[in-house]
Amino acid sequence: TYYEIGSGAQDARNPVAMAIQVEDDAPENRVLGNFSATVTVRPDLTAQTMLGVDYTDAARRTFAPRASPIGAQYGGYARQADRTLENANFQQLLTYSPRFGADQEFEIVGGYEFTKIDNRGFDAQMQGFITDAFGVNNLGAGTQSVSPVPTSYRVESQLASFFSRANYGFAGKYFLTGVVRYDGSSRLAEGHRWAMFPAISASWRVSEEEFLRGSMFSTLALRTGWGKQGNQAVAPYQTKLLLRADPGAVYPIGNVL
């Protein structure tokens, strides 16, 4: 037989029996989509629009029946959890590339980008069932909620950016790049959500000089730059006063906590 010798939690655990008895499924559906379109307004001016969507719908179904050694210690155990994650990104670019002569290259890009993340979920666990007939499909038949208690959540965040980049090249050897971004994040505190981030860099393609042509270097370049970066690595809502429902959360109202 595939099943254990003994009874309940004291059974000698047979791996084949556990694989048959214990249910633990995690189906996930994910949709990824990207759309882009480019329009040439004039020979030296183009506009590009990009839209991306990432949608995930995942679930977790776990059931350990009373007949199994895992479920016996709880009188049967069942869990249902669902999670939905939606990511959307929009970007609009405008690129201007005028011609100033055979030895000069110039390009300037201006754009706007918006990203939104919406994450929500639900999780409930129960134990103490009088029958294994329901599986995970009737949590209300359990007699005891498992810690943590049933939970649900929704977490949103948004990031908006205005940016511009200019590239200048001369004779295929000397290059100068300037970048400026103005970013705003919903994760940061009021009054600190928007900031400017400039950067500049210069490079010299030494391998294009006469004294290095035909040398052992196929490509050799020197580059230097300076820039300012931001960091939004803060969990959403951490800069806000949060309302909690657990006994450890207190707030003074009048003279009473």
Describe this structure in words.
By secondary structure, this protein is mainly β. It contains 2 helices and 10 strands. It has helices spanning 15-21, 69-72; strands spanning 23-25, 28-42, 45-64, 77-96, 104-127, 144-145, 151-170, 174-185, 194-205, 221-227. Strands 1, 2, 3, 4, 5, 6, 7, 8, 9 and 10 form a 10-stranded antiparallel sheet that branches. The termini are far apart.
Features:
single chain; 257 residues; mainly beta; ten-stranded antiparallel sheet; 53% strand; elongated
Shape: elongated
Oligomer: single chain
| Head-to-tail CA distance between termini | 60 Å
Radius of gyration: 30 Å
Rounded average pLDDT: 90
Provide a count of the helices: 2
Structural class: mainly beta
Helix content class: under 10%
The total count of strands amounts to: 10
Give helix and strand order, one letter per element, not per position: HEEEHEEEEEEE
Low-confidence stretches: none
Beta-strand portion reads over 45%
Largest sheet data: 10 strands, antiparallel
Topology of this protein?
Layout: H1 15-21, E1 23-25, E2 28-42, E3 45-64, H2 69-72, E4 77-96, E5 104-127, E6 144-145, E7 151-170, E8 174-185, E9 194-205, E10 221-227
Antiparallel strand pairs: 1-3, 2-3, 3-4, 4-5, 5-6, 5-7, 7-8, 8-9, 9-10
